[in-house]
Amino acid sequence: MQFKHPELLYALLLLIIPIIVHLFQLRKFKSVAFTNVQFLKELTIQTRKSSQIKKWLTLITRMLLLACVIIAFAQPFISNSDRFNTKSETVIYLDNSFSMQSPSINGSLLNTAIQDIIETIDEDEQISIFTNDANFNKTSIKAIKNELIQLKHSPKQLAYDATVLKGRKLFSNDENSIKNLVLVSDFQQKTESLTATNDSLISIKLVQLKPSNLSNITIDSVYISKTTVENFELTVLLKNQGDTVETLPVSLFNDDKLIAKTAIDIIDEATTSFTIPTNAVFNGRLVIDDRNLQYDNTLYFNIDQREKINVLAINEADDTFLQKIYTSDEFKYTASNFNTLNYNTLEQQNLIILNELKDIPNSLTTALKAFTDNGGKLLVIPSNAIRVNNYNQLFNGYGLSSFGGLNSVEKKITTINYSHPLLTNVFDKQVSNFQYPKVNGFYINATSSVSSILSFEDGSSFLAQSGNAYRFSAAIETKNSNFKNSPLIVPILYNIGKQSLKTGDLFYTIGKENMIDIATQLQQDDILTLVNGENSVIPLQQTYDNKVELITNTYPDIAGIVSVKNKDAFLKNLSFNFDRKESNLNYFDTQNFANTSLDNSVASAISEIKSVTNVNELWKWFVIFAVIFLIIEMLILKYLK
């Protein structure tokens, strides 16, 4: 037994007072004359013995009464551990990602965790709680109860190692305090797991919440699979985790108007198609009905009147292959002979192609540099007879390596940079049995730090990119190369054209950096805004002569369709959806995480933390004993003769 105020035990010395009072009574006895005391002798002896017993019992009860009162004020207790008097700090990570929408017995996993926290932790106890997008540092449940109840799901989820690192920073610097970091999550599988290091100062507890079922249906994506003069064919990809679903209804809306509805059977994956007119502005919304995760049951997309991309080819060679790639449905292709080039048209273009020019004069070099600095793209295809010095002067402005002499040796193009943005989604997998194109002559170029898209067998660059400039290191005319007959030429040149003006995808992903070009010309003080109902925000943007490049990341933070406006003038719509990466309900086995302890629920984790510093207080018992001894003393004085 231990005491919170042991100094009060010195008051036990006061117990000597009743002893002195009882043992040294200073009363003087008065003699009374009586005729014959012989008859009183026996009665007197009995009275004296009874009086002595009563005095001793009274003495003992009074001493016990006083001792219980003194000990009660000293507040005795029995501790559950030797750390009972140590300060305790608790930090809780509450995962509010979309996977925590999964159902449990008492609602969603997130609601279950919030309810356990509110019910288990004392209202006034100081605690720190953080989520994927909110922090409640050194507060109390009473202060943040409403915020917890109204907590929304977040489209982003912290990496597990990042949660540990963030949680450590919320503790104080007191090395003597007990620090407990509680991670409450479903611990959905990611590319990285939890690698907690051994730390003697911080105890990491994992509370893995498990859904009542592992079924989920997702609208994964939508894309235009076929285009005719009159119609688009939209293909919708759906994914299923769990049992086979029969006749799943899929609805297509344009704004709030139901356009079409179909039903499909889905095992693991399935697709369904809808047809919409090409000449209509379509603010689409695809909807399914699934009781599990809710965020992936709706997918927004939109089709606006698409701006055509301006492509100018400056030719001294045949451009038939360019005309076939840059067709009129998506591009506004213009061909100009080098000798009749109008320099005033350069700034109106999005992509300029130098098609096997023999010479690039200084005036054109200067104009092209101004064009690319203003956001335009440049593609250089050399001929077999160029003025090397003038070409190199152009390349120096972009950090491209200089050309040496022409090397008339056959060489194969064998290396494809599959990770380059131009080749995104071009290949399903890396190809090993590809029929590689070749050249009969090429310009020697030194190794540089620019991004190589296609390379020769010796590693030197065939097609390279630096900033807004792309460059071939060999002529691609049929006499020098069979590259025009290669399946590579169409996706590469087409994507160079498409990326020269990002006209807009069907939808964008919230939380990722999206770069979107808006074809418009702004006045000096004009600025574009994103408007969603009554909410509006000014995104990051870069203004060029014939376009504005928007950069979205943190906004919008909810799925839907937002409008791009210049003041009150509507320009176009953009659709945003949440990333579908959390739709796959696979989870880590937390028993494999080192340097952590596991708990089945938030309540058990908090209870275990409290048990380390809990004490059994005994002062109430001593108050009860004092009252009992007081009652005993009163009974002795009243009834014991």
Brief description of this entry?
By secondary structure, the protein is an alpha+beta fold. The chain is 22% helix and 33% strand. It is built from 11 helices and 37 strands.
Describe this structure in words.
This protein has 641 residues and is an alpha+beta fold. 22% of the residues lie in helices and 33% in strands. The protein has 11 helices and 37 strands. The strands form 9 sheets. A 9-stranded mixed β-sheet has the order 18-17-19-20-27-26-25-22-23, sandwiched between helices. Strands 7-6-3-8-9-36 form a 6-stranded mixed β-sheet, sandwiched between helices. A 5-stranded mixed β-sheet has the order 28-35-34-30-31, with no helix packed on it. Strand 34 and strand 35 (569-577) form a beta hairpin. Helix 2 packs antiparallel against helix 11, helix 3 (109-120) packs antiparallel against helix 4 (141-149) and helix 3 runs parallel beside helix 10. The longest helix is centred in the first third of the chain and has 33 residues, at 41-73.
List keywords for this structure.
11 helices, nine-stranded mixed beta sheet, elongated, about 650 residues, alpha+beta
According to DSSP, the number of beta strands is 37
Envelope shape: elongated
Helix % is 10-25%
List the total number of helices. Answer: 11
β-strand amount: 25-35%
